[in-house]
Amino acid sequence: MKEKTEYESIFISDVHLGTKDSKAEEVIEFLKASRCKRLILNGDIVDGWALKGGGKWRDSHTKFVRTVLKKMEKEDTEVIYLRGNHDDILERFLPIAFDKLVIEHEYVHETPKGKYLVVHGDGFDSVTTSCKAIAVLGSYGYEVLLRLNRFYNRWRAWRGKGYYSLSKDIKARVKSAISFVDRYEDQLHHFARARGCAGIICGHIHTAADKMLGDVHYLNSGDWVESLTAIVEKEPGEFSLLSYEDFSRDQAVRREERRREKAGKVGANEEMEPRLRPVETAAA
């Protein structure tokens, strides 16, 4: 049996099940290789907007749900699902609790270093809160951009080049996009302070982060569409940002270590086996 990486908590958001660009297989691989006491699904796990607009639910999306349920059943993992804006249909049913599954608006995570407030973050996006129609239109524009990105990266792969994200490049270059992220982070910083929390963990804007904003620890789990990132808590209060790329590299190292260990055991066993010599028969 493969050894799993142990965590206190795992925070993931923005998987967007129901869309073609959801990297469900990758997040499943990560979750299967990990064991945690609690799994916080911080919004936009299911993309209700996309499904309503003709999106497709794939086998891998069902597999993701089964993976989470299996962790609850087999590993006794507590699952906290926080509603986002793309899965806002849950709003009318909150709060809900089924054994080890809790669906809520927000979650306060207790650590030895203080409380961390966990929210999806769409409430701090003025476009999402003030005009849903514009937000839906923006979501559609993002899907178009991702579609163009797929074709562009096929061409890059044909030329032997690696993956390139158009949306990340736009966020890094366009001043209004940079300003939006700055305002978003600033609002969450003030909100955490007002709630007396040492840190805040969010998602929503698909921009992973782990940094201090004044005296508040700001963490954004990114997404599983392009960034492929999660926030992990290795020890109580010890958070870090983990990318799928880093996870894959670590898994490759572990596989190599297991291969060498197995090869070493085989070699040792061969040396321990007695070497039989041919029996010499007496001359007739």
Short description:
The chain is built from eight helices and twelve strands. The protein is an alpha/beta fold and 284 residues long.
Largest sheet: 7 strands, mixed
Corresponding CATH superfamily = Metallo-dependent phosphatases
Which percent band covers the strand fraction? 15-25%
Low-confidence stretches: 126-131, 133-137, 275-284
Q: What is the CA–CA distance across the termini?
A: 57 Å
> Which architecture name does CATH use?
4-Layer Sandwich
Taken together, the total number of domains comes to: 1
Summarize model confidence as the mean pLDDT: 83
Q: Assign an overall shape.
A: globular
> What is CATH's topology name?
Purple Acid Phosphatase, chain A, domain 2
Radius of gyration: 24 Å
Number of strands: 12
CATH class: Alpha Beta
User: Structural class of the helices, strands and pairings?
Assistant: alpha/beta
Biggest sheet: strands side by side, in what order? Answer: 4-5-3-2-1-11-12
Note the run of SSEs as H and E. EHEHHEEEEEHHHHEEEEEH
Structure description:
It is a single chain. The chain has helices at residues 24-32, 48-52, 59-75, 126-130, 132-158, 166-173, 175-194, 244-272, and strands at residues 5-12, 34-42, 78-82, 96-98, 101-104, 107-111, 114-118, 199-202, 209-213, 216-220, 229-235, 238-243. The longest helix has 29 residues, at 244-272. The chain has a single domain (5-256), classed as Purple Acid Phosphatase, chain A, domain 2 (4-Layer Sandwich). The strands form 2 sheets. It has a 7-stranded mixed β-sheet. Strands 6-7-8-10-9 form a 5-stranded mixed β-sheet, with helices on one face. The radius of gyration is 24 Å and the shape is globular. Helix 6 (166-173) packs across helix 7 (175-194). It is an alpha/beta fold.
